[in-house]
Amino acid sequence: MATLKLKIVVVPTYDVASIGVADASTYPTDPPVVTDPILLATPPGFPTISLPFNVGSYNILTSETLGITPEGIINPLPDGLYTFGYSVAPSSVNFTGIAIMRVDRLQEKFDNAFMTLDMMECDQAIKKQAKENLNTIYLLIQGSIAAANNCAFVQATELYNTASNMLDNMMKKNCGCTGNNYMT
User: Fold this and answer.
1) Which DSSP state fits 113?
2) How many angstroms separate the CA atoms of 103 and 112, rounded?
3) Based on the domain organization, do 19 and 76 belong to the same domain?
4) pLDDT value at residue 184
């Protein structure tokens, strides 16, 4: 007989308008202990919302289900720190939680910047500088995720903001470089 061990995981949806939360828990089969499963979700800048949770399943959340937009309207979800708590009973003993740094919109912006980089450009110095900038931005995005995974939420936000600002500057200036500042 399995013992109750709650675990939820956030699974990529590759869609800026949704986030997936999957149940990876183990449950005893006799007697079943799953009563009133709820997911507490806190999107960045919004209050915590209590949602029904499908046990043993993959739950898709949108701006509508998270209470960010009115019913019938689904917009891209904001990036930032999300916290999720899962409970199968009113007891705090039967509770688990996680926090993640969502970067889907920033990743979409990064992808667009990457696609504007002309790989066949004649000016190799400018191309090298743009690649170097994109590599730095990518590392900042990954650092933001890693910081959030290790509960360093202030650092996660700072790294995210730095990456976002670098991307904005790069896109405004059509790469933001002259080719003279590439360092090997």
Assistant:
1) H
2) 14
3) yes
4) 43
Q: Give me Rg for the CA atoms of the chain.
A: 21
Q: Tell me which amino acid residue 23 is.
A: D
The DSSP 8-state label assigned to residue 5 in this structure reads B
Task: Give the SS3 label for residue 105.
Answer: helix
Ranges under pLDDT 70 in the chain? 1-2, 30-33, 90-93, 118-126, 174-184
Tell me the pLDDT tens digit for each residue of 50-88: 999 988 889 999 999 999 999 999 999 999 999 999 988
Q: Are strands 58-62 and 49-52 parallel, antiparallel or unpaired?
A: unpaired
Please report, in angstroms and rounded to a whole number, the separation of the first and last CA atoms in the chain. 60
Q: Which domain holds residue 37?
A: 8-102
Is residue 88 located within the same domain as residue 139?
no
Q: Which pTM does this prediction carry?
A: 0.81
